[in-house]
Amino acid sequence: MTTAPTETRRPPAVAGPPLGVLAVVFTALFLGSLVLGTVLAGGSPYPSPFGETADISAYFRDHHLAVQVGGALQFAAAIPLAIYAATASARLQHLGIRNPGATIALAGGLLAAAFLALSGLLGWVLSQEPVTADPGLTHAVQYLNFAAGGPGHVVPLGLLLAGMAVPGLLAGLLPRWLAWSGLVIAAVAELATLSLLFEPAAFLLPIARFTGLAWLIIAGFRLPLQRPRQTT
């Protein structure tokens, strides 16, 4: 005698804001901080902290509004990133992920959001005249701004990617190409720690940052709300 296939019960899909939309909002705010800041500065590029103190001081002294707007948008971008991390972690747990991946994604995302918010606030500080009146102080705050918004943000962002990519690969929640690309980007993000020791390694920061933004958008739309239906 044969038995008819029976459907396994699935819990209802976890509620929460759509991950893909959160990633798009985060990316739009962050890119807006770069583009609008450059436009308001008349096309002058944001200075590197490794440049000359006089040049750095002149930029922040002459472009108060550009720096202030850029800092405000970066601070704002940290909010959807934090929500993304919390939602992704809850989604992974709902999908049955019991390994540390969901917790790593949450910790990495919250740290990345916190450092991005700090970078935005430091940008706001750099737009204030009492700070820009002192070239040495301006340069010192710019170093802090770079540390927070550079490796401080990008390295834990890699943990968010890895925390989603590993269970996405092992549990088949994400396409293999997407999961593996997330792991590669995460590895580059972790290597960006070297930028704190060797100035030339700073080129890893934009590579990990911008590819990571694209990955979060794609993964946000591809991560399922619930496990595929199984039959026995």
Note the topology:
Layout: H1 19-40, H2 53-62, H3 64-94, H4 101-126, H5 129-132, H6 135-149, H7 151-170, H8 176-191, H9 204-222
Folded structure, characterized:
The chain has nine helices and no strands. It is mainly alpha-helical. The protein has one domain. The protein is elongated and about 65 Å long. It starts with 18 loop residues before the first helix and ends in a 10-residue tail after the last helix.
Summarize the structure.
With 232 residues, the chain is mainly alpha-helical. It has helices spanning 19-40, 53-62, 64-94, 101-126, 129-132, 135-149, 151-170, 176-191, 204-222.
Topology pattern, helix = H, strand = E: HHHHHHHHH
Give the end-to-end Cα distance, rounded to a whole number of Å: 15 Å
**Backbone structural class:** mainly alpha
Biggest beta-sheet profile: none
Helix segment count? 9
> What percentage of amino acids are in beta strands?
under 5%
Unreliable spans = 1-8
**What Rg is obtained from the alpha carbons, in whole angstroms?**
21 Å
Helix content: over 70%
Tell me how many strands there are.
0
What overall form do the CA principal axes indicate?
elongated
As for the number of domains, it is 1
Task: Please tell me the overall pLDDT.
Answer: 90
